[in-house]
Structure formats: structure tokens, C-alpha cells
Amino acid sequence: PPDVAGPPPESEVLPSGLASKLLLRPTCALSRSLSLASEECTAARPRPYDKVQIDYTGWQASGRMFDSSRLDKRVVRVNSVMPGWTEGLQLMAPGEKRRFWIPASLAFGDSESDPIRPAGPLVFDVELYSVERQPRPPDDLTAPPPDAAFTASGLAYKVLKAGAGERRPLRSSNVTALYNGWSSNGDLIMSTSFGAQASFVLQDVPIEGFVEGVQLMQEGETRRFWIPAQLAFGQKPEG
């Protein structure tokens, strides 16, 4: 772009130093008479833990293009990318295209370490196609809180809502449950809100911590479980 070396005077600059310029208006405000700050546009913007479908191209301030989806739409979680993207994507609504000038502090820093992760300020054109809403991860996602209880196996849990039922399932029971499951980095890995099976034979679930935990529950109860690797899918292999 002709303004790749720095943001033009008409760009919007946030306190963080991120600058942006609107290139295409979003679907919620196609007409210039419609405000980008409308309730419809505000509601359409992604949250940090949502996934978005985008196209993008990135340049260094010298004008060298170093990365591009090349119209091959990518899906990313908003808070799993560089800080400048995380902040910038939350400004956008579906159909919108923006140019971002991202300072090094919100990109890959000032030290060159990888050709596809260049140092210094970067410029990106990003077009947002759609937002895939995700359940909000719990604040205590990465570790059980002090008031959590533990089983002998190392499974941690906390009762969020007491159940009124008297029965607890066995490993061989057929159960019906609503659930969301996240990895420690915030990725949603299983959810009945997104097509995961709600009725199943408990012992058929390939996560031993899930099988153990559900057997502790009464009908109508809601619990949060923190499942150690040895009761889930094991440790991530090195390399």
C-alpha cells in the first residue's frame, strides 16, 4: 500500500499505539448514513475468545510482503494471535476490511528471529467474513482455585450448582449432559452447543477424568472439572 510506511492523518490511533483505517464498511453499516457505533455493529463484533474467519496480507514498513492468506480464508481465535490483531479484530464486524499499522510492541517485537515473524512495525490488511461465537472460558481456566476439591486420582472439581436428584451414574450408565470443554490455552475442544453428543454411555468417553467426574454428580448438578493430562489425552509430545 502507498501508506505502508506509516499511518495517514485520517487513521484512528488507539492508546496502545495500534492505528487503523477503514477500507470496506461492514454489513451492519453498508450505508454511510448508518453508524459503525450502532448497537447492531457493536453486537456483531467478536469477543476475545470467539473465532473469526478472515483474509489478510501483511507487510513490513519497507513494503516487503511477508505473509498472506491469498484469499484462502483462515479461522483463528481472536486472543490466540499477536496482540495487535487481538485488539484490532475486536474493532471489526463481518463484511468489514481494515488496514492496521501495528507497532513492534504489539507484533513480534524488535528482534529478528524468523523470516515469517519479522521484527519492527507491521502493516496488515484484514477482511473479516464471519464470527463464530464461543462459550466464554472460565476465569480459572488454567488451574483449580483454592476452594476446589480433589479426588485421589488428581481430578479437581468445584460444584457450581447443586443437583436435586438422588441418583449418580455408573461407568456403564447412559447419561444426558450439557458440557463445554477447553484446553489450557482457551481452545474450545468439545461442546454440546456445537454439535457434541449430549446422550452417551459414560464409559465410552475417551477422557478418563470426564468419566470419573460425571460419576460424582447428581441429576441437575453443574460442576467444573480440571482434568490433569494423565486423565485426559496425556502430555503433548515434544518436537
How would you summarize the topology of this molecule?
Elements: E1 12-13, E2 19-24, H1 39-44, E3 51-60, E4 65-68, E5 74-77, H2 83-89, E6 97-102, E7 122-132, E8 149-150, E9 156-161, E10 174-176, E11 180-182, E12 188-191, E13 199-201, H3 208-214, E14 222-226
Antiparallel strand pairs: 1-2, 2-6, 3-4, 3-5, 3-7, 6-7, 8-9, 9-14, 10-13, 11-12
Count of distinct structural domains? 2
The percent range for helix content is: under 10%
Give the end-to-end Cα distance, rounded to a whole number of Å.
Answer: 38 Å
CATH topology of the largest domain: Chitinase A, domain 3
CATH architecture of the largest domain: Roll
* Tally of DSSP β-strands: 14
* Largest β-sheet summary: 7 strands, antiparallel
Average of per-residue pLDDT values: 94
Beta-strand content: 25-35%
Cα-atom radius of gyration? 22 Å
Low-confidence stretches: none
SS content category: mainly beta
Quick recap of the structure?
Helix content is 8%, strand content 29%. With 239 residues, the protein is mostly beta strands.
